[in-house]
Amino acid sequence: MKKLVDLRRDTNTLPTEEMKEAAFRSPLGDAVYGEDPRQRELEELAAFILGKERAIFLPSGTMGNLVALLTHTQRGNEIILEENAHIFTSETGGLAQVADLMVKTLRSEDGAPEPRDIERAIRPENIHYPRTALIGLENTHYRYGGIVVPLTRFEKIREVADRYNLPVHLDGARLFNAAIYLGVEAKEIVRYCDSVMISLSKGLGAPVGSLLAGSCDFIKEAERYRKMLGGGMRQTGWLCACGIIALSEDNISRLREDHDNAQFLAEGLQSLPGIKIDRHQVQTNFVLADLSERELEATVFLERVREKGVLATRAGDFAVRFVTSREVNREDIVFALQVIKEVTQVI
Ligand SMILES: *Cc1c(COP(=O)(O)O)cnc(C)c1O
Which residue has the least CA distance to atom 12 on ligand 1? Predict the structure, then answer.
């Protein structure tokens, strides 16, 4: 069989053998009535790891974020997001269509707005203005190539939020990648936020699922919205058994391999003519390659490497994105680099 190295995403990760076995052995119950033992166990484990009172399991990160928005806000409120936030760009406008929210987007260098910009964006009490109801953050930041927002920024944003009595929600789809990069436990990031969503189905490798964590009062309301949106699933034990393994210490620290492979890939790409890498961007499991120097079109580049068995994604007219995950090892990266080298020599 022809070799295929898929560097498009970390969502294509498949459950491990250990996950599959745990799934089949898992006891089952009706989770809507709180009777699925594995779901309860997973939710307790997640709350513990994230340092929050409670957590709930949901089918996707998009639903987790939407439930958080619905729980934190009233219709017609305004929320503050960075302009490339996944919640704003990539969740089908659910914040407007379902949660009836307005958005104030802010520019940033690296995925998290400056605290003073956030402060300026908060609406004063005035009969003409919508009410600001929430600050949304993202870590790692997807659109900027999986870069990590530093803890000091979180701390300062929290100070602003406290001054104006505003909640902070964290889209932590790749929170553990950020924690590993920063060398801290995930809860050290989450402590600056009132609620957090994490994905089990990206680098952590579970087939399906996300968790939303927060205070008991917050989760009590969030459970209602989860049900309303259709996220009240029944015998979830199979999925949650995989999720419990996804959140094991070994599985979380394995993400480091993805980061190391991304570094290795970046280093290799950097040495190829016509490819520019910003090494500051390569912090976790994403590598953005700039092909503009030789005006190498991303679509052409991607087509050529695909023919030779390497898959990546377009990130702009002259930019491509590579994502490392447990589905690719060092050998695969060496293969990918060889293919890219051949392709860039002939284009
Ligand atoms: C993937 C992702 C989500 C949404 O998760 P789904 O499970 O795909 O709905 C939210 N935020 C970020 C930053 C993501 O990368």
Answer: 173
